[in-house]
Design brief:
With about 150 residues, this protein is α+β, with helices and mostly antiparallel strands. It has 4 helices and 5 strands. The chain has one domain: Phosphatidylinositol 3-kinase Catalytic Subunit, Chain A, domain 1 (Ubiquitin-like (UB roll)), CATH 3.10.20.
Length: about 150
């Protein structure tokens, strides 16, 4: 008779606490040409950081880091969750068109609040899209890609 012990390892997204999370911000320069560059945010406290603070943090990185020089000519004003860890991804490679009501963290139509990212549904290993809201609305109305 064999005794087999199974120990389930925790998911990697659950290993880090919300006070020391890792998230990916997908900086979208062009929806039409699928110009996207990832910015990894290490050791972010999701329980204390707000969406407007994250927006300012990433915009500062774009304006100071040489790797993001081609992305500086866009007025970024919106953040939206692209996917959560171990969740299904969108069929669109640039942005998730689904759930605009719940997953848009900040935009011209969604005013910034003092609500933490954690309370807005952001977890460890979440991917968030950074983009211009007017470009998003135009692309959503006619999602044609050129390349």
């Amino acid at each position: 008779m064999s005794t087999e012990i199974t120990v389930e390892e925790p998911l990697t997204s659950n290993v880090r606490p919300a006070t020391d999370a890792l998230i990916t911000v997908r900086i979208i320069k062009s929806f039409l040409y699928r110009n996207v560059k990832n910015h990894i945010v290490h050791s972010i406290n999701l329980k204390e950081t707000t969406a407007s603070q994250l927006l300012d943090l990433v915009k500062s990185a774009i304006n100071t880091m040489g790797a993001y020089r081609p992305y500086r000519n866009i007025e970024y004003d919106s953040l939206k969750i692209y996917t959560k860890a171990h969740g299904s991804k969108s069929m669109n490679l640039v942005i998730n068109f689904e759930n605009d009501q719940g997953w848009v963290l900040i935009s011209p139509s969604v005013t910034a609040t003092e609500t933490s990212l954690w309370d807005l549904g952001v977890e460890n290993e979440t991917e968030i899209s950074l983009f211009n809201w007017n470009d998003y609305v135009a692309f959503k109305a006619n999602p044609e890609e050129k390349w």
